[in-house]
Structures are given as structure tokens and as C-alpha cells.
Amino acid sequence: MYITCLDMEGVLVPEIWIAFAKESGIPELKRTTRDEPDYDKLMTWRLGILKEHGLGLKEIQDTIAKIEPMPGAKEFLDELRSMCQVIILSDTFEEFAKPLMEKLGWPTIFCNSLEVAPNGEITGYKMRCEKSKLTTVKALQSIGYETIASGDSFNDLGMIQASKAGFLFKSTEQIKKDYPELPAFEEYSELLDAIKKVIL
Questions:
Q1: Is the dihedral of CA 24, 26, 30, 33 positive or negative?
Q2: Domains in the chain: how many in total?
Q3: Mean pLDDT of the chain
Q4: Active-site annotation, residues
């Protein structure tokens, strides 16, 4: 039995923080897990910038409301879900992901949660578990599933390398160069074909 584990941002929907950087006019917030392998360091830095500018959860959610899935993402997910179980493994937060999951037809997502003060300030965040994507893939394997994984960033490499089949999708030139052994795709049709070959 197969489960396909997909990253969310950069794979199915545009990067939330890049969209918010444009909306808020704060270019530093464009930094993502494609640029910074240490997620804890990245989030601590982001929260510092939000505090400095007096921005909170509402402002980010207002931006997220305007984000649409990438062209073809929902159709890709629908077809993939007709062939095998699919779980989205993301380092994003429930408070960010919900409206995006609605637009994608409510796929299953495992992600993290934010700590938010009564005034809407994001004061911290709670990770579901350490190295959540890799840990989840290993847990699924421990209960009898074969995993297939795909993502675009540094924090996806663990689950991609630990899976029976793993693919980079819409990744950076640097990551593709550093990991030439990982098949890399740009189109949903290519990724779907590669997954079909594993499953069927």
C-alpha cells in the first residue's frame, strides 16, 4: 500500500511568506526554506520582523485569502487521490493552511500550529514533532505503508530520500545541482507519470 506525501508551499500553492512580503512591502520576508535549511532559525527571524512592524495573524490571513492554488494543482491532487492515499506534509500552520485546503478540496494535511496572543500577535509556534516530514514518513513506513514523496525545499529532502520513490518538484537550481540523483520535475503531468510508474 502506497501513501504519497507532498509538500504544500511551492508545490501546490504559492509560497505564503513571499505573497505576504509583497503585500506588506517587507522584502526580507521573501526568505523561505528554499534559502534557509534551519526552519527554527527562519521562523524566529520572521516573528521578529512581524513584531517590529506590528503585524499579526490577521494581516497574514488577509493575504492568504487572496492566494489561489497553482494552476493544475487541484486536478493533479484529485487524480493522484484516485490512485493512492495522499497526505500533505507541511511546515506551515493550521491557522494558515485551512483556506488553502478548502480550495484544494480538503486533502489531509499534517502541519504545525501557532501561538497567538489575544491581540493577534504571533508570539510563537508549536512544531508537531522534530523533523516532522521525515518523522511522519518513517512512522507511516513503520505501520506497513510504502511512501512516495515530493517537495521543493531543503526541509523536504529527508522525506524524499527516505521514501521508496522521491522527486523534486519546482525546486531551485541549487538544490537540483546538489542532489543530481533525485529526479526533478516542473510539470504536474510529469510528476503524476513518475508516481504512476511506482504504484502501477
A1: negative
A2: 1
A3: 94
A4: 7, 9
Calpha distance 164→87 (Å, rounded): 16
Domain CATH code at residue 155 = 3.40.50.1000
Q: What pairing do the DSSP bridges indicate for beta strands 122-126 and 146-151?
A: unpaired
Measured CA to CA, the distance from residue 125 to residue 127 in angstroms comes to 7
Residue 13 DSSP code:
B
- 47 lies in some domain: no
Q: What are 62's three cell numbers?
A: 488577509
Residue 155 placed within a domain: yes
Q: Mean pLDDT, to the nearest integer, of 90-99?
A: 94
- The pair phi, psi for residue 60, each rounded to 5°, is -70, -40
> Is residue 8 situated within a structural domain?
yes
In a domain, 133, yes or no: yes
Cα-to-chain-centroid distance, residue 31: 14
